[in-house]
Amino acid sequence: MTESCTVNFSRETSLARIENIKPSDIGGKLSENQHNFGLLYLCCIILSIITYVADLILTIILLYFYYVQSQGLYFALTLTFVLISALCMSTVSLKWYIIDHDDPSIGRASLGQWVVRILFLLLQISPLLRYVDTLIYGIRSKVAASTDSNSKQLILYRRMLDEDANSSLLRLFHCFLHCAPQAVLQLVFLLSFVMYPEKRTLSINVAVIQAWTVFTSIVSIAWSLTSYHRSVRYARDDKDNIKWIGLLVAFCWQLMSALSRVLALSLLGAILPTWMGVVCAIHWGFMFIWLAIGQHQTAACSSRCEELLLSIALGLAYVLAFISPRDGPTRYVYLAYYLICFMENTGALVVWCVTNSSSNNPFLYYGAAGSQIVAFILAIVFLIIYYKFCHPSVTKRNKMISDDRRDYIENDKPCYSRTSYNFRTSS
After folding, report:
1. Where are the beta strands (DSSP E) in 30-120?
2. Domain boundaries, the chain
3. Is 237 helix (H, G, I), strand (E, B) or coil?
4. Buried b vs exposed e over 377-394: b needs ≥16 C-beta within 10 Å?
5. Which residues cross the membrane (predicted)?
6. CB atoms < 10 A from the CB of 422, how many?
7. For residue 401, what are the contacts with CB-CB under 8 A and spacing of at least 6?
8. Judging by beta carbons within 10 Å of its beta carbon (0-12, 13-18, 19+), is residue 410 exposed, middle or buried?
9. pLDDT in tens, 45-96
């Protein structure tokens, strides 16, 4: 666990600026990646679109049924998180469009492009347009590569990386302001529906939609975090890309981690909703203090005020998941974070087991607690597997060792230079 991707909330979300492209880049990582808009990249963007759209559609359907069945409290709470997330993403995306419009290296957008942008912003689905632009730039870069137009292909590929980084960052806002609260909220409603049949005011159909909403929200959380780390590594010249097996393991890690955390908070919220709020508030405050004191973001922020705002935002995100605030070793940071989550999750399970009786609904009683424990253990297992075998730095080192061994066999002599250098720099 020697390195990680860092969060960057400034406009420079990547190094994918056209003015930064130099002829020497073509021989480095860029030449290695210039044809990488292939099946894997395409599948990642399509999966991002599917998870985003599915999550929105299910939430809208849920809002409709809450309104029809006169569930004012459920409707208001669900709509609140939808609007907060949508307005935040639209505001940030509009600011980026304005900054891009004044950037001569990017070029001014046409009137038609601005009409489409404003339409998507008004509909509060700004990430969707970013994904579409990413696909368009990727396809155009492939066309340029097929016509041997290297300079044009390089520019289009860089613009694709920039849009991909922007869309991934917007999805983080959607992840922590919409998906995470909705997953906990709807699961609390669903648990109350199952635990107290005498107080049911919703139909079975709505409960099924709630279950699907929780499922899509958790999947969306996991994929948002995985996709963000993928896009950051593609956009940064000093980072190696994640292979498909690494993406799969990272997704499983984030999925299990989000599932265990959502389950723990929801189990506590179904019994003692006020205490769930208190736990989240304390966790948020503790993480904010840690970030504000020990994790200064001078690269991402231009002032101490912006650093504090970033610490507040990240502290809220850390209620559910961890994103490294800066480059550097993360072994002990992850250990501390998951240790805190383990203690909070254990406390929530104790409250669940003590205040409930297994005789009322043994399947729910043992199933919910067991699922939370298993999900947390699996999250740690996938985390270890990712950093032990699938992290880009590990796969690169293994490839270099394999190449040296092949050189030894083919040339009948050892070739130590690459492996020696790699071991020195990774220590």
Report:
1. none
2. 18-390, 391-427
3. coil
4. ebbbebbebbbeebbbeb
5. 39-66, 73-94, 114-132, 169-196, 202-223, 244-264, 270-293, 305-323, 335-354, 363-387
6. 17
7. 419, 422
8. exposed
9. 999 999 999 999 999 999 999 999 888 889 999 999 999 889 989 998 998 8
